[in-house]
C-alpha cells in the first residue's frame, strides 16, 4: 500500500513508517532497559554445550519457553552439571539479537531449584566416589593409639592450627608435628591442599597420621575440602 492510498484510507497524513531495523532497535532498547536484571525459574530443555564452552538452552514452563545462553566464562564456574529436565533458578538480563529478531536470557547465575548448587555438587561427588568404593569399610586404616609423628595440612595463620596445638598441649601429647602450610579457601586452595597431602605421603619418615583441618565457615568457605582433587 502506497502512502497515497494510506492517506486516502485514513483521511489524514500517513503514519510515520519504521524500517525493520528501526523497530527492532526500539524493541531492543525497551526490553534491555526494562529487563536488565531478572530472576527466572524454569525447566531446562534443549541443552547444548558448544566447543567454545558456551552453553545454549531453553527454559520452559507449562505455557511458555525462553531461549537462554550461559557464556563460557560463567559456565566454567558452575559447581554442578546442567542437564535436561532440571528445574533451575537463574538470574541475568534480556538481550535482543537483532539479525534474527529474537531475544534471549543471558544467564549470569544459575542453581538447581530447591537444592543449592554446592550441595548438589557435593551429593554428586559423594555418589561418584561411593561407586568407586572409596568409602568401603575395608579401605579404612586404624589410627595408632599414640601417634609419634602427625602431619597437619592447614593454614599456618588460622585458628585451626592454634586450637589443634593447644589441645595437644593441654593433654600433654608428646607427638612431633609437621605443618604443611596451605591456603584453605579461595581459588587454588584445593590444589594446594592436595599437593600438601601428596608431599606428606612421599616423606622418607613414617607419618603415623595426617590431619587436614581449618576453622569453621560457610559451605562456600569450606568448599576447597569438598573438591575431588582433595
Please give a structural write-up:
There is one protein chain. This protein starts with a helix and ends in an 18-residue tail after the last strand. Strands 1-2-3-5-4 form a 5-stranded mixed barrel. It has 3 domains: 1-27, no CATH class; 35-137, OB fold (Dihydrolipoamide Acetyltransferase, E2P), CATH 2.40.50; 141-226, Rossmann fold (3-Layer(aba) Sandwich), CATH 3.40.50. It contains 6 helices and 8 strands; from the N terminus they run H-H-E-E-E-H-E-E-H-E-H-E-H-E. Helices cover 29% and strands 27% of the residues. With 230 residues, the chain is of the alpha/beta class.
Draw up the topology in text.
Elements: H1 3-10, H2 20-34, E1 38-49, E2 55-60, E3 65-70, H3 72-75, E4 87-97, E5 102-112, H4 117-131, E6 149-154, H5 159-170, E7 176-181, H6 189-201, E8 209-212
Parallel strand pairs: 3-5, 6-7, 6-8
Antiparallel strand pairs: 1-2, 1-4, 2-3, 4-5
CATH superfamily assignment of the largest domain? Answer: Nucleic acid-binding proteins
Q: Architecture of the largest domain in CATH? A: Beta Barrel
Find the CATH topology of the largest domain.
OB fold (Dihydrolipoamide Acetyltransferase, E2P)
State mean pLDDT (0 to 100 scale). Answer: 87
Strand segment count:
8
How many domains, as an integer? 3
Q: CATH first level of the largest domain: which class?
A: Mainly Beta
Rg result = 29 Å
Strand content: 25-35%
Strand-pairing-aware structural class? alpha/beta
What is the number of helical segments per DSSP (H or I, 4+ residues)?
A: 6
* Helix and strand pattern: HHEEEHEEHEHEHE
Strands in their spatial order, largest beta sheet: 1-2-3-5-4
- Overall helicity: 25-40%
- Point out poorly predicted stretches: none
Sheet of most strands: 5 strands, mixed, barrel
Backbone shape? elongated
Distance between the termini: 71 Å
Amino acid at each position: 500500500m502506497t502512502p497515497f492510498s494510506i492517506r486516502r484510507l485514513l483521511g489524514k497524513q500517513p503514519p510515520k513508517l519504521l524500517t525493520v531495523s528501526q523497530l527492532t532497535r526500539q524493541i531492543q532498547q525497551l526490553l534491555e532497559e526494562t529487563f536488565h536484571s531478572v530472576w527466572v525459574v524454569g525447566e531446562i530443555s534443549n541443552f547444548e554445550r558448544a566447543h567454545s564452552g558456551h552453553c545454549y538452552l531453553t527454559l520452559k514452563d507449562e505455557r511458555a519457553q525462553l531461549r537462554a545462553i550461559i557464556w563460557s566464562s560463567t559456565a566454567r564456574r558452575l559447581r554442578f552439571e546442567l542437564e535436561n529436565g532440571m528445574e533451575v533458578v537463574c538470574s541475568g538480563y534480556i538481550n535482543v539479537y537483532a539479525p534474527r529478531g529474537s531475544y534471549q536470557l543471558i544467564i549470569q547465575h544459575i542453581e538447581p531449584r530447591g537444592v543449592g548448587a554446592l550441595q548438589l555438587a557435593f551429593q554428586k561427588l559423594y555418589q561418584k566416589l561411593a561407586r568407586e568404593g572409596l568409602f568401603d569399610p575395608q579401605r579404612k586404616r586404624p589410627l595408632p593409639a599414640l601417634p609419634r609423628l602427625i602431619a597437619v595440612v592447614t593454614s599456618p595463620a588460622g585458628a585451626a592450627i592454634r586450637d589443634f596445638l593447644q589441645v595437644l598441649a593441654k593433654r600433654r601429647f608428646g607427638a612431633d608435628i609437621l605443618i604443611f602450610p596451605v591456603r584453605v579457601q579461595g581459588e587454588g586452595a584445593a590444589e594446594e591442599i592436595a599437593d600438601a597431602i601428596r608431599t606428606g605421603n612421599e616423606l622418607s619418615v613414617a607419618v603415623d597420621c595426617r590431619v587436614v583441618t581449618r576453622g569453621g565457615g560457610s559451605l562456600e568457605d569450606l568448599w576447597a575440602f569438598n573438591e575431588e582433587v582433595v
